[in-house]
Amino acid sequence: MRQIKREFELRDQEFQYIRDLVMTQTGIVVSENKQELIYSRLSKRVRALNLGGFDDYIDLLEDGRNKDEMVAFVNAITTNLTAFFREGHHFDYLRDHALPKIMERNRQSRKIRIWSAGCSTGEEAYSIAMVLAEKLGFDTWDWRILATDIDTDVLSSANSRIYSADRVTGIDAQRLQRWFRKGGGRNQGLVQIAKELNDRISFKQLNLVKPWPIKNEFDIIFCRNVVIYFDVPTQKRIFDGYARHLAGHGNLFIGHSESLHKVTNRFESLGHTVYKKRDS
Predict the structure, then answer these.
(1) Is 144 helix (H, G, I), strand (E, B) or coil?
(2) Is the pLDDT of residue 214 over 70?
């Protein structure tokens, strides 16, 4: 493998150590051809900490006393690509099929619980919240969304409710008017999501490859374009965990490039990467 010659040297053994640490901490498999990507993301941490190179950075991580830097390491590695109403057919299915069935099943409790796993900067969770608010309102149903991610930086961004205006292009005018407020003056070019949506969402840090501090049962779980970064044994553990936390006949939504084939038999495909939990 060729060595990277830039501001800092990233030796093969250092790259391998980082690959192993990423796997241990996040479950993400870093392929051998990602050396430049790793350099690009972590050299910023080396520079910010005024270290001499990657050897010093690895010493810092190995020391274990700087817990904040391990968090920063994970935040630097994880990928956060998302958009409002990404894979729009999922939100149509949620509105037209999944929610009516849940409303029938939960008509006595009038509670609905949804988990957005790997929520990144929050666009998915807020998209779900918009659908629920438009379908159910805020008064007669107790609906809540748990939105989790391993990256604390993106969770803070999501909880702020603030996005650049170019992030909401493509959302229809009625939704924009109802759920977004345009900034003025120093906030020109920014929009803020309505607080009433944020009030129904709990943004929490959670590492999918570590034990989950979750006791709730969910009616729906969104985990889209997340498990593609994990190996198959890790995917199986995660999907089996989702099955344990889904209510009977609950729905799982995954990304368009993902599949449960040869990973788990706990779900039945409903088409278009929507699944139903099988009877136990």
Answers:
(1) strand
(2) yes
The annotation status of 224 as a binding-site residue, yes or no, is yes
Token representation of residue 212 = 């989950």
Domain 88-162+193-277 matching CATH 3.40.1350.10: the answer reads no
Query: Is residue 225 marked as binding?
Result: yes
Give the catalytic positions in this structure.
41, 149
How far is it, in rounded angstroms, from Cα 66 to Cα 222? 33
Position 61 scores a pLDDT of 92
Mean per-residue pLDDT for 76-93? Answer: 88
**Contact criterion met (CB below 8 Å) for 27 and 209:** yes
- For 188, the enclosing helix (H) or strand (E) is none
Domain 4-77 is found in CATH 2.60.40.10: no
86 is in an annotated binding site: yes
Q: Bridge partners of 114? A: 145, 220
Amino acid present at 62: E
Phi, psi torsion values for 28, nearest 5 degrees: -80, 135
pLDDT higher at 48 or 170: 48
Per-residue confidence (pLDDT) for residue 101, from 0 to 100: 96
Rounded to whole angstroms, the Cα distance separating 120 from 153 reads 9
Where are any strands of DSSP class E within 7-105?
9-10
| Pairing outcome for strands 274-277 and 267-271 | antiparallel
The residue ranges of every structural domain in the chain are 4-77, 88-162+193-277
User: What pLDDT, in 10s, does the model give residues 52-61?
Assistant: 999 999 999 9
Say whether 143 sits in a helix, a strand or coil: strand
Q: Is 151 annotated as a binding residue?
A: no
pLDDT at 29 over 90: no
The reply, when asked if residue 265 is annotated as ligand binding, is no
- The label of the residue with tokens 């029938």 reads 104
Burial profile 129-145: b = 16 or more Cβ within 10 angstroms, e = fewer: bbbbbebbeeeebebbb
Quote the pTM value. Answer: 0.85
Looking at per-residue pLDDT, the higher value among 108 and 74 belongs to 108
